[in-house]
C-alpha cells in the first residue's frame, strides 16, 4: 500500500492513511482525505480557502480516476460547490459522461443533494478587489465587469498566488490505484478557464497495472503535454518510474511558447515506488508519503528536475 499527496493535503492525509490501513478501497480513502482539504480555510487553493476568478466568483475544478477500470469523473468551473471531488466521483458513478462543467455540473450537484454554498471568503474577496483596483483605471472600475476581460487576463491572472491544487494518489490493499484532485484553479483566472485538475491525462491518471500520476502548478503546460498520461504510458512501455517522470519533464521543458511556469509531478508505480519531481520551482517543494509499515504519513522534499534545458 502507498499514499502520495502534495503538501496542501495536510488536513486529510492522516485520515486517508488510516482508511488504507484498515483496507478501505483506495478511492474511498483519498476522497475522505480530500473532503477535509476542501473544507479547510487555511488551504488557500482548494475549496473554502481558494481564490476567485477575475469576476470575484469561485469556480472549482476536480477529477477522480479509478485505476482498476480506468473510469474517470471530473467537473470544471463549478460554482457554489465545495465537495467538488465528491461531485466528480458522482459523475463517474452515475452518468454516462466523464466531464461536466459550469451550470450543468451545478445542476447535477443539486440533483444529488450537494448544497449550494457561497465559498468566497471575505479575505479572498478583499484581496481580489485590491488587485482589481490596482490594475484598472477609474473608468474601467466604474464599468466593471462590463469591460473586455482578455487584456486584463494578461496582467491580473495570478498563478503565483495559487501555488497548488490538492492531489492524492494511492495503491490500496488490493493493489488497485486511484487518483483524485481538487482546486479553485489560478487566482483571478478568466471565467470558465479549466486547469489540468479536471482533465484526465493532464492533471491526473491512474492505471493499476502500471502506475498513477498527478500534477500541480501550471495546468496550461501539463494539458499541452498530457503529462500524467505520459508518465503512466512510459511505465507501460518499460521505463522506470524515475525515467518516466524525467521523460515527462523533458516534454515540458521543450515547450517554449505560451504561458510557461513551474510544474510538480507526483507519481507511483505498481512496484511500490514513488517519485515527486519539481520543475522550474523556485522554492523547495514538499509532499506527503505514507507506505505500509510507516506509523504516520511523513512530509518529504521533492527532487528538483535536471533537464538539458533547465537548471
Ligand atoms: N494545476 C492547477 C491549475 O492549473 C493549479 C495549481 O496546481 O497550482 O489549475
Automatic annotation (TrEMBL):
<feature type="binding site">
    <location>
        <begin position="193"/>
        <end position="196"/>
    </location>
    <ligand>
        <name>substrate</name>
    </ligand>
</feature>
<dbReference type="GO" id="GO:0005737">
    <property type="term" value="C:cytoplasm"/>
</dbReference>
<dbReference type="InterPro" id="IPR029055">
    <property type="entry name" value="Ntn_hydrolases_N"/>
</dbReference>
<dbReference type="InterPro" id="IPR000246">
    <property type="entry name" value="Peptidase_T2"/>
</dbReference>
<dbReference type="Pfam" id="PF01112">
    <property type="entry name" value="Asparaginase_2"/>
</dbReference>
<feature type="site" description="Cleavage; by autolysis">
    <location>
        <begin position="164"/>
        <end position="165"/>
    </location>
</feature>
<protein>
    <submittedName>
        <fullName>Asparaginase</fullName>
    </submittedName>
</protein>
<feature type="binding site">
    <location>
        <begin position="216"/>
        <end position="219"/>
    </location>
    <ligand>
        <name>substrate</name>
    </ligand>
</feature>
<dbReference type="GO" id="GO:0016811">
    <property type="term" value="F:hydrolase activity, acting on carbon-nitrogen (but not peptide) bonds, in linear amides"/>
</dbReference>
<feature type="active site" description="Nucleophile">
    <location>
        <position position="165"/>
    </location>
</feature>
Amino acid at each position: 500500500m502507498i499514499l502520495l499527496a502534495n503538501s496542501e493535503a495536510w488536513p486529510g492525509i492522516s485520515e486517508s492513511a488510516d482508511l488504507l490501513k484498515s483496507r478501505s478501497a483506495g478511492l474511498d480513502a483519498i476522497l475522505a482525505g480530500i473532503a477535509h482539504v476542501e473544507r479547510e480555510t487555511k488551504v488557500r487553493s482548494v475549496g473554502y480557502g481558494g481564490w476567485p476568478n477575475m469576476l470575484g466568483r469561485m469556480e472549482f475544478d476536480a477529477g477522480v480516476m479509478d485505476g482498476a477500470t480506468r473510469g474517470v469523473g471530473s467537473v470544471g468551473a463549478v460554482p457554489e460547490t465545495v465537495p467538488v471531488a465528491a461531485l466528480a466521483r458522482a459523475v463517474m458513478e452515475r452518468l454516462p459522461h466523464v466531464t461536466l462543467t459550469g451550470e450543468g455540473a451545478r445542476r447535477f450537484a443539486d440533483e444529488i443533494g450537494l448544497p449550494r454554498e457561497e465559498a468566497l471568503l471575505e479575505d479572498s474577496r478583499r484581496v481580489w478587489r485590491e488587485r482589481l483596483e490596482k490594475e484598472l483605471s477609474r473608468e474601467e472600475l466604474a464599468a466593471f465587469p462590463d469591460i473586455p476581460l482578455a487584456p486584463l487576463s494578461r496582467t491580473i491572472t495570478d498563478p503565483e498566488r495559487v501555488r497548488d491544487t490538492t492531489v492524492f494518489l494511492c495503491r490500496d490493499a488490493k493493489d488497485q490505484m486511484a487518483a483524485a484532485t481538487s482546486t479553485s484553479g489560478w487566482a483571478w483566472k478568466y471565467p470558465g478557464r479549466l486547469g489540468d485538475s479536471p482533465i484526465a491525462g493532464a492533471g491526473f491518471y491512474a492505471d493499476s497495472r502500471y502506475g498513477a500520476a498527478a500534477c500541480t502548478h501550471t495546468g496550461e503546460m501539463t494539458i499541452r503535454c498530457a503529462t500524467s498520461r505520459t508518465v503512466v504510458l512510459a511505465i507501460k512501455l518499460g521505463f522506470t518510474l524515475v525515467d518516466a517522470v524525467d521523460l515527462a519533464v523533458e516534454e515540458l521543458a521543450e515547450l517554449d511558447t505560451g504561458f510557461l511556469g513551474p510544474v510538480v509531478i507526483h507519481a507511483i508505480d505498481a512496484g511500490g515506488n514513488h517519485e515527486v519531481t519539481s520543475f522550474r520551482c523556485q522554492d523547495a517543494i514538499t509532499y506527503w508519503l505514507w507506505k505500509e509499515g510507516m506509523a504516520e504519513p511523513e512530509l518529504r522534499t521533492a527532487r528538483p528536475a535536471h533537464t538539458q534545458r533547465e537548471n
